Every structure is written in C-alpha cells, then in structure tokens.
Amino acid sequence: MLAGAAAVGALAATGCTRVATAAGADGGDLLQRLRAQGVVRLGIAGEIPFGYIDEDGHLTGEAPELAKAVFKRLGVDRVQPVPTEFGSLIPGLNSQQFDVVAAGMYVNPERCEQVIFADPDYQMLDSFIVRKGNPKGLHDYEDVVRKKARFATGTGYAEIQYAVEAGYKESDILIVPDQVAGLNAVEAGRVDVFAGTALTTRAVVRKSAKAEATRAFTPLVDGRPHVDGGAFAFRSAETRLRDAFDVELRKLKRSGELFRILRPFGFTEAEMTDLTAKELCGGGRNG
C-alpha cells in the first residue's frame, strides 16, 4: 500500500541532494520525453482503491484516475499500468521499470531518501479488520499489545512501524501480501486483527460474513497522533516532472476537481489535505 499503505524497513540512505547533484542540476528530461512518447508508465500495486485492474481489465483507482487528469494537462494523453508488488514499487521506479509510482504511497522520511514525492493528494487514518462483533475489543495498537492479540499487516505497510511503536514485537507480526490476504487470515482465525488504512479495510470487508472493519483511528508516533498522506513518487533526479505535477495538482485541489476524482473510490472530504511532501519527509529532504 499505502495505503495505503506504507513501507517501513531497511532503505538505502541516498539523499535527494546527492542524487540530484550526480544526475545534473537541470531537473531531468523525463517530462519532455513523456510528451514525445504520449504515454506514461504507472507503477501500481493492485490495491483497491488506490490503483488496480478492475474485473473488466481496465486500469482504475484513485491514483491512476488522478494520473490521467494530471498528465493530460501536462501534455501526455495515455497512461499504461505496470503492476508489481507494493514492496517492489520504489526499486522498480529507480530501475526505470515505470516512470512514476501511482499507488497511493504514503510519504515518510525513509522513502524520501530514495525518491521524491509530489504533495499528498489525500490523508488517511488506520483501521482494523477483526472478527464480527470485535470479540477482543481491539480499537488501536495499544489494545493489540495489551490484549496480546495475534496481529497481521501487509508487506511494507506503515502499520508495521505503528504496531512496534506501541510495543508489539516485530518478529511476532504476520506479514501478508495485501488486505485480501489479511481478511482471509482473520476469517480463518490465524490472526485476531489485520491493520490497514481505513479505506482499504472498509472496502475489503463489505462482502464478508465473518469480519468487519473497526472505526478509523489515528496511530501514535513518538507519543503523538500521526496522520499519513499518500502521493505520487518520482525518481530523485526528475524534479522538473515532480514540480510540474504539483502545479497541476494544486489547481485540481483549488477547483474541487480532485475530490470529484477521488470520491467514487470511497474518499470523503475528511481525506482531502493540505499536507505537503516537505512536512511528511521531515523538513526538506524531498528535492
């Protein structure tokens, strides 16, 4: 995911300043090349509602639909999906398997050492998938620790960090590929709880007879409430493309068009945000 999600783990410390210097100071030429090609390749992770292929084989999700709108404004008429696992999005981007990450990826300082981000197009809280009736009364990460619940989350998700922050032993966390696998683990009784974004948990339990999503909540980081923001990611040298993307994104926010694009995927006004990539990167390592 993120959503969704969000990768935390061992990430190479390649700061933006050093990468940009090595690549040249002109901000890259990817935008010019994309305009000439007429198509941009989007790295997606097959996660509803962020970026996925629907039952009819069409690319959709909040990030791809936003990409279509922004890149059309930038003179690039077509988008082409490149599906991969969430944990492979940043390596795939940096090895040029695709041009941008369009997967609702959370912005955090570790990721900002590897890529640069546009400003977030949404903000998000967390939620749990639990058995119907929430028999263990799990409403936040502190509950999971206190009640010694069996805990799962997705590959590379930020929820790993939040659980560890609350005192859960990382080696005891069951890591599954995505929210569907998380739902299956809860339904089968292999775990008591799966953590993900409020949007993904709500979406995946809709047809479940055995599981439900808890009320959204704000995780704690360093003892303080932490709100995540999801954004498009770009290779560190491509500041020109990132900056042009941000200009059009701001226009969509001001006009209300961004919300109209995201609303069909379950987003509400509460998920609209003025957070910046600089804030979430920790004060200026994003370019």
Description:
Helix 7 links the parallel strand 9 and strand 10 (174-176). Strands 1, 4, 5, 6, 7 and 15 form a six-stranded mixed beta sheet that branches. This protein has a five-stranded mixed beta sheet with strand order 10-9-11-8-12. A two-stranded antiparallel sheet has the order 2-3. It is globular. It has helices at 16-23, 30-37, 62-73, 89-94, 109-112, 141-146, 159-166, 179-187, 198-204, 239-255, 257-262, 277-281, and strands at 39-44, 52-53, 59-60, 78-83, 100-106, 116-117, 122-124, 126-131, 151-154, 174-176, 193-197, 211-213, 220-221, 224-225, 228-234. The chain is α/β, with parallel strands linked by helices and 287 residues long. Keywords: Signal. Residues 39-269 form the Solute-binding protein family 3/N-terminal domain. This is Ectoine/hydroxyectoine ABC transporter substrate-binding protein EhuB. InterPro entries: Ectoine_EhuB, Solute-binding_3/MltF_N.
